Amino acid sequence: STDNALSKFAQLYLDRGIPVLRFTAHGGETFRGADRRSSVAAALLDEVERTSSVAGGEHLQLLFHMMSNNGAMLYTSMMECAQQRGTHQWVIGATRGVVYDCAPGSLTLPVFVKALLATRPPLSIRLGLLVPPSALLLLLLWAVRCWPVRAALALLAVGGALWRGGSDNHNEEYHHKLASDPTTCPQLFLYSSGDALVSHVPVEGLIEHRRRRCVEVMAQRFEGVPHMELLRHRRPEYEEALDK
Fold first, then answer.
1. Would you list the DSSP string of 176-215?
2. How far apart are the first and last CA of the chain?
3. What whole-number distance in Å separates Cα of residue 11 and Cα of residue 86?
4. Tens digit of pLDDT for each residue in 11-28?
5. pTM of this structure
6. Residue 149: pLDDT band by 50, 70, 90 thresholds?
7. Which residues pair with 99 in a beta bridge?
8. More confident residue, 216 or 37
9. DSSP code of 4?
């Protein structure tokens, strides 16, 4: 990827003599089903293998730096791919560090909407987000008028499921895969109490899971810093955490 948003993060590693392969995962490549995610993960591992091979067929050591849920979800697919495909199994042993940057969070509808709005989409898309709630409200008013009790209860149940994202099982599977990461290398968690998209609760839950698996875990919790703004607002502490 040549995404300028990643360049400042990549430069941190380049300044320390560490080659960087960066990739920007679009929403459709991570949230459009496991098959799509797996194919992207396999292609990424092929590229990692191509660029990291040295003379004699050996591979360099690897460090994964994942940003937000997009990066963490793709990382789970890459580790699954490494476990299931013989050609990629070397990745597990070659991984020497994993960095979670503002991840992992919960996969719910409110989080999705907040993440979309944070990208400052065109006005047409922002207005489009109002259509489903407005339609649901009109349907609710009509149904309540016709079948007051049953319709109201049914629609409230559907609305509640949509608000939670209807993804409790998906969330559990996502966090279970991260907790069961086959690598045993040190992991660093960089997160904030002021993150509106990724709560500190699931992050600290994963930290405890990994520590129970005897994995060395380092964590840097920042106070009051917005999502994916840790480097911008707290650069000295951010760099110090990476250096450790």
1. HHHHT-S--S-EEEEEETT-SSS-HHHHHHHHHHHHHTT-
2. 27
3. 33
4. 999 999 999 998 887 766
5. 0.77
6. low
7. 65, 188
8. 216
9. H
204: how many CB neighbours lie within 10 A of its CB? Answer: 14
Angle at 190 between CA 185 and CA 195, to 5 degrees: 145
- Which tokens in the block code for residue 159? 């609305």
Question: What's the rounded Cα separation, in Å, for the pair 123 and 177?
Answer: 37
Chain position carrying tokens 């380049």: 14
How open is the CA angle 112-117-115, to the nearest 5 degrees?
35
Using the predicted structure, report yes or no on whether residue 162 has a pLDDT greater than 60.
no
Lowest mean pLDDT across 143-147, 153-157, 189-193: 153-157
Inter-residue contact 182 to 92 (CB < 8 Å)? yes
| Burial class of residue 149 (count of CB atoms within 10 Å of its CB; 0-12, 13-18, 19+) | exposed
For 31, list phi and psi in degrees, rounded to 5.
Answer: -110, 5
One DSSP character per residue, 106-158 reads ---HHHHHHHHHHT---HHHHHHTTHHHHHHHHHHHHHHHHSHHHHHHHHHHH
Peptide bond into 104 cis (omega under 30): yes
**Predicted pLDDT at 143:** 59
